[in-house]
Amino acid sequence: MAHPDLDELLNHLLPFAIETLQKHGEFYPFGASMRTDSTIATVYAQTGDEHPPSQDLIDMIVQGLHKQAEHGEIRACGICLDVRTIPPGETEKTDAVCARLEHAQGEAVDVFLPYRKDDDGEFSFGELFAAPAERDVFGSDAT
């Protein structure tokens, strides 16, 4: 069972990702942090490019969150991105919204929401599933 703070972050990240996906057909990576007082703030990164590489945005978000973690300003965080993955029980990759969630107490989990876009541009979403993840923000190796 995920830490309640991670559930709150997931409930903050997923609706925005879904809404943006449905409106624009895609979304750039973004994140959220939970401060020590439980307030949640959305986190974005910009490179100045109109179409920046997603990995550049992810790296910038991780670096910013890591600095906040080092200063004891946040207790949990998450980064939301568009990925391709193989859901449990499936054999083929599918598109998915991924929320990479971390807590200062040590828990790290990737939560996936598979989706498909039909010929009419309508989205359908599958069942959430999760997998253990690496610690990028609160881990000692974060940069």
SSE layout and pairing:
Layout: H1 4-24, E1 30-35, E2 40-43, H2 54-70, E3 74-85, E4 94-103, E5 108-117, E6 123-125, E7 129-132
Antiparallel strand pairs: 1-2, 1-3, 3-4, 4-5, 5-6, 5-7
Name the helix and strand elements from N-terminus to C-terminus, one letter apiece.
HEEHEEEEE
Which segments are poorly predicted (pLDDT under 50) over 5 or more consecutive residues? none
Instruction: Please work out how many helical segments DSSP would assign.
Output: 2
Number of strands: 7
The mean pLDDT is 92
> Biggest sheet, open or closed, and with what strands and sense?
7 strands, antiparallel
How would you name the oligomeric state of the polypeptide chains in this document? single chain
End-to-end Cα distance, whole Å, is 28 Å
**How would you classify the helix and strand content by structural class?**
alpha+beta
Radius of gyration: 15 Å
Shape: globular
Q: What fraction of the residues are assigned to beta strands by DSSP?
A: 25-35%
Count up the domains: 1
